[in-house]
Amino acid sequence: PVAQPVSASGEHPPGAALVGTKYVKVPKNDPSQAKEANDAPKFPVAPRMTAAKDRVPHVASMDQYREMWQRSVDKPAEFFAEQARELLSWMTPFSVAHHGDLNHGDASWFLDGTLNASYICVDRHAFATPDKVAIIYEADHPDRPHVEITYRELLRQVCQLAGALHAQGLRKGDAVGIYLPNTAHAVVAMLACARLGLVHSVVFAGFSAEALRDRLRDCQCKVLITADQGMRAGKEINIKSIADEALREAPMVQKVIVHKRTGNPNVKMDPTRDIYWDEAVKSHRPYCPPVPMAAEDPLFMLYTSGSTGKPKGLMHTTAGYLLGAALSTKYVFDVHEGDKFACVADVGWITGHSYIVYGPLALGTTTLVFEGVPTWPEPDMYWRLIQKHKLTQFYTSPTALRALRKFGDEPVKKYDLSSVRVLGSVGEPIDPNTWMWLHDVVGKGEAAIVDTYWQTETGAHVLTPLPGAIETKPGSATVPFFGVRPAILDPQTGEELEGNDVSGVLAFKQAWPSMARTVFGDHDRYLETYVRPYPGYYFTGDGCTRDHDGYLWIKGRVDDVINNAGHRLSVAEIESALTAHETCAEAAVVGAPDEIAGQCVIAFVTLKHTHIPTSEIPALLTYAVRRSIGPIATPKRIIIVPDLPKTRSGKVMRRILRKIVANETDSLGDLSTLSDPSVVQTIIDLYNNKQ
Ligand code: ATP
Ligand code: MG
């Protein structure tokens, strides 16, 4: 039987799928969509993966990947039980590996086992390899010396803070807010919570007071861990005063622990509520026993980045999540003993949770925490870090790479980047040109590129190449990770599209350990968003093409599709055509209402630093789109803007641009997750020719 999309009310408008709580128009299966994918070049396993004779990749061939993947989806309980015994440490061993399913939203893993995430990430390495560096902390300024924290020292710091939290009366199950800059202290704070079974809710320190307030209230945090100030591109950010403003309307937060990041004497402390971190921890002994947690006890909750609407507070569990983070760090980045791993996201995002903190530390790896930005003081900060620490894995985002590519190749070429074996990308579809730049200029054609597709909800990678085994194609997240059984569905009928050369919406057919278990405090929203749209499947909300080789290509959100006179145009494809042009740095394409065609294409672009806006550029870009996709994709207008509206994690918020081109600027919606709200007015003015 074919799964039919249903809503709570049972209605289903034709040609639409449920995204969140609203129906949106989505693409039908259109074979021409696979064309670009089928024309893409293919790259063999990168030379650096096999360069050292004594270091064989964990998965070293396509056959080995196929065999492992097949077993992981055919016998998930068996496969993941083995992995969970190997990669985690259990206080009480589990006997039930898997229970529940997607249909009922009750999938759960290793149910009767107990463990502690802080023990797994810290203690066991502090006992085995105490002097190994756990964390390298690089501050916002390159002249400030970096800090190295060994596993032995990390255990002390985590225990002392856990002692302080315990002394505040916090017990297993209580929620703690963390609003800290991206420093080693943030990692310590997360692990101290995990040690006591406190559910941490990290809020990215760039968020406003209102955004922080809403998140603290949503999970009823009793304590907030924050800092006096943050540093971003050399500027002080008054984190404590933003927190104070949030706390005025979040009275359930009774205690505030303040890390002295800058020590600015003007920062106000409320003596009845606030205490400095150093003061709070100094009376506690540097050992504190870890609290045994049930496998399915919450480890943390975290909000999605808010690209499409009101952020969802997802809840992740102790064992399933930690296994996903550790397993993917090991296999996707091919981590080996002696590696130095860097994920330059912020701990405020799921990428930071899984690949700065839990994944690398669970494996006992050295992880780098970078507080700064890639382009300040010079657009070479990443490359400097790689050379300085001889980093072996480097994980970043398309948005950062596009920002760096604007400055050309010279800043990269100044550095020796030969230590890097794996370069990762996450957050948005990476356009083939940016992929090629990463491959050719940063990786010199020798490092592996892993374009990892996943979500806050998935906890860990779900589509990704394994660098020692899978041939790559620029722009494709390639193949499913262990435990993930992807399906491409016809958005209208919910019918599964079998075989290759098909396009539709991406869904997953069975549960995997690291998937989020619920939306905090609103399980019905969880079912409504992920499970009910296509019963029996987990619905991602992203469009996807499977090409003739069976490789998967994410085509952006299902609502990021333009219907031009019946032609379904992929926003991601038009944007790739634009950024392929030498003048264009970034592009965001949306559909505007059009009397004749239904929808027409409008493109907003930023230029590389080497080019100034001229009246010819839009014509050149138009030609580039026509040549690469065809006249049907011709943008009706191309508007050169100084910047695109982006979330604080750097994702383009196309929904705002859609409102602008539809003349609905009075209902722009929730802007609290936008990194620079002032660009919105500039874009409105440029669009209306007022500038
Ligand atoms: P919200 O759900 O609130 O709208 P969000 O989806 O941006 O926010 P995240 O969970 O941080 O929040 O992002 C996951 C989404 O990011 C994916 O659903 C997908 O659209 C996009 N994405 C992430 N990695 C990739 C990738 N490698 N290729 C293509 N798209 C990606
Ligand atoms: Mg999302």
Automatic annotation (TrEMBL):
Keywords: ATP-binding, Ligase, Nucleotide-binding
Domain Acetyl-coenzyme A synthetase N-terminal span(s) in chain numbering: 65-121
Start and end residues of each AMP-binding enzyme C-terminal domain: 573-651
GO BP terms in the entry: acetyl-CoA biosynthetic process from acetate
This protein's GO CC annotations: cytosol
Known EC number: 6.2.1.1
Single GO term (MF): AMP binding
Pfam families: ACAS_N, AMP-binding, AMP-binding_C
Catalytic reactions of this protein: acetate + ATP + CoA = acetyl-CoA + AMP + diphosphate
Classification via Gene3D superfamilies: 3.30.300.30, N-terminal domain of ligase-like
Domain AMP-dependent synthetase/ligase: 123-511
Catalytic EC class: ligase
Transmembrane portions of the chain: none
Family statement: Belongs to the ATP-dependent AMP-binding enzyme family.
UniProt cross-references to NCBIfam families, sorted A to Z: Ac_CoA_lig_AcsA (TIGR02188), PRK00174.1 (NF001208)
Protein name, as recorded: Acetyl-coenzyme A synthetase
Organism: Allomyces macrogynus (strain ATCC 38327) (Allomyces javanicus var. macrogynus)
